[in-house]
Automatic annotation (TrEMBL):
This protein's name: Uncharacterized protein
Species for this entry: Winogradskyella psychrotolerans RS-3
Top-level taxon of the source organism: Bacteria
Length: 143
């Protein structure tokens, strides 16, 4: 697994996304509802801010890298979502976190297709595939 845990600048964070998401997220602080849960989307400034997960210092957008490292040690190299889709820890590690709910669960973009949104349950490492995509999210919350 990659050890690239820190995003050094806002410009590097912006480069992780297509123009439509970059334009969408810079407008204002946005709270979205996905699967009946409210998530605060990260600004680019928040994406690069540092947090400590399992003793590893990471950028918020790279939080899944730290969780995947721990899960790999505990559960092995593979996990599954609620529908049985196989997740390799390296793919989870490469996924980008875009928001967090009040319980600390993470909203992230599926690295497999670059558009489907998933929820990562930080307390048990569970993965939940949502019906939402990045495009639908932007459309639903744009004015």
């Amino acid at each position: 697994m990659s050890t690239d845990f820190i995003i050094e600048s806002i410009d590097l964070a912006k480069n992780l996304f297509r123009k439509n998401y970059r334009d969408f997220i810079t407008e204002k602080q946005i709270t979205v509802t996905v699967e009946d849960e409210d998530f605060k989307l990260f600004s680019f400034e928040k994406m690069i801010s540092l947090t400590n997960i399992d003793g590893m210092e990471v950028s918020e957008a790279r939080a899944l890298r730290a969780y995947a490292t721990t899960l790999n040690d505990v559960m092995g190299p593979t996990s599954y979502d609620q529908k049985g889709k196989k997740w390799n820890m390296a793919m989870l590690s490469a996924s980008i976190t875009i928001g967090k709910n009040s319980e600390g669960d993470l909203l992230f973009v599926d690295r497999h297709d670059g558009k489907t949104l998933y929820i990562f349950r930080h307390d048990d490492g569970g993965l939940f595939k949502t019906k939402m995509t990045l495009y639908k999210l932007i459309k639903a919350y744009s004015e």
